[in-house]
């Protein structure tokens, strides 16, 4: 069906199933519970940014529906319902398909699998950010990667700076996109059209280069001349130092020139990159304002990872067949019963065969052991 839509057979389908098992165990150990929302949403419920990027269908009653473009909106709606029952500490994880009509970047698919978590609380606390970012790192480690980075930024740092210069929300969003793309010419032209001084334009160019480890925070303080920017840097510094103390310094970097939808994200943002892959495999951040849609006073941070992108660089989990079971006609019953009680990954032959054929087929499958049942007898070949 082409790259944008993908069918899975072994070994790809086996990889996906093993990811589900491994990641479910990781997230479950931190109190996250699985959710499986409907694949359909009301079109009017989508964020503005997703409306042109969705597959739309019309229900029999004329209502416009869409296939989900991500999980967060559905998770937030479920969390709001749970919150009605008096619970304000909600942790979800998910594994499933999402669908996007437009593919804008290299590595994009129209139909792909996402894994992710949503941490939704009645309290705004940086420790929730730390937990979620640490689990983003652990996700990539659990999937066998060693060389990767999770870049962290803070949208409020940039918001404070734009407010200082009197930009309205629309202008701030445009400038945000230009800085995120490191479009230096675009930044200069946009600010020049607004008669912004060259020294200020130069400051915005420099912000795009605020990337690295802890030293970035010291440089950023020179641009933080208002309370919003100062507080965002203090919080980011606290998060960075905690993650560093937990042994994650190797995997995390700071990128204050990384900016995402400022009308959606409300604090820390982060993106994960695997060595040798030129586009992100993981993305997340804080999105407290989403719950205003449901009139709830809740705070949330989460991330999602695209498995098709990860699959491009992932090695196998070493999950080939361990045991091959062959038999003659009289040995079928005993072979079947024997197979039910073995924990290794087994290939059970579906018809009687000769011992030499069992050996040949086991070799093709890479099975390490071959058991052959002849009547009531068992042979290890």
Explain what you see:
The protein has 381 residues and is α+β, with helices and mostly antiparallel strands. The chain has three domains: 1-145 and 276-318, Bira Bifunctional Protein, Domain 2 (BirA Bifunctional Protein, domain 2), CATH 3.30.930.10; 148-274, BirA Bifunctional Protein, domain 2, CATH 3.30.930.10; 323-380. It contains 13 helices and 16 strands. The strands form three sheets. A nine-stranded mixed β-sheet has the order 1-5-6-12-11-10-7-9-8. It has a four-stranded mixed β-sheet with strand order 14-13-15-16, sandwiched between helices. A hairpin with a 7-residue loop joins strand 10 (268-274) and strand 11. The protein is elongated, with a radius of gyration of 26 Å. It starts with 11 loop residues before the first helix and ends with a strand.
